[in-house]
Write a structure and sequence with these properties.
The chain contains ten helices and seven strands. By secondary structure, it is of the alpha/beta class. The chain has a seven-stranded mixed sheet, with helices on both faces. The chain starts with 5 loop residues before the first strand and ends with a helix. This is Glycosyltransferase family 2 protein.
Amino acid sequence: MKKKELLVIIPAYNEETNIVRVLDDLEQPEIAEIADVLVMNDASSDATNWIVKARGHALVTHVFKLGYGSALQLGYKYAIRRGYRYVIQMDADGQHDACNIPVIYKRLREKDADGNYPDIVLGSRFMEGSAEFPVSSAKKLAFKLFRVMIQLVTGRKIADPTTGLQGLSWKAVLYYSKYNHFDDKYPDTNMIMQMILLKFNVVEIPAVMHARESGESMHSGLKPVWYMFRMFFSVLAVVFRCKILKIDEGAGQKGDNKFEYRKKIS
């Protein structure tokens, strides 16, 4: 059987009521033929672990809850070790429709007008062509703030600055997999800004997403207040790191990181 070059990474915490439907969608032939699935179970106390095991997908289970960002970063390390060329990350709560997978995968392999491939493809809820997505007034305010911050610092307009639906090239995955390159809690606006500042090729496309139907969001209750506070200062930290200290300056322009060569020797 020919090895697949695409890995779908799904961080999951207590998602037993949603993950069955997500896996059902990912097991449809049009998805299963092009992608393997890795579920990062972040110490769930429900049956998430057993559901994924029974379906036969790759599974990593944390003994202690490490957070959304840590789950993703460990998934990136897995992808690098196993030689996947592309990664698409999506949520386990059913908000990210599986129909986006082939579209993002196709865009990752398409050159732009300058002959460059994307390093990161963002699936957006708020572009022309995106499916309608309900958003509260508080979240609208947060999105507007983060859009303004990205535009002021990078000059780029990003319609959906907190999207968790993203496609990554091997180069972006390799960068994220390294120590201190990725937020271990809420990798959203701050990481998008960081990658733009480091000259990675970040593009945005319309996506189909749905509101969560059951279970508890990681942004429920008073968590959004803490999230906004933390994200604001995380963005400032990224600006200081990239624009003042110039750490990893131009990392996104340093070739393709020799994927073919590294794949042969790994």
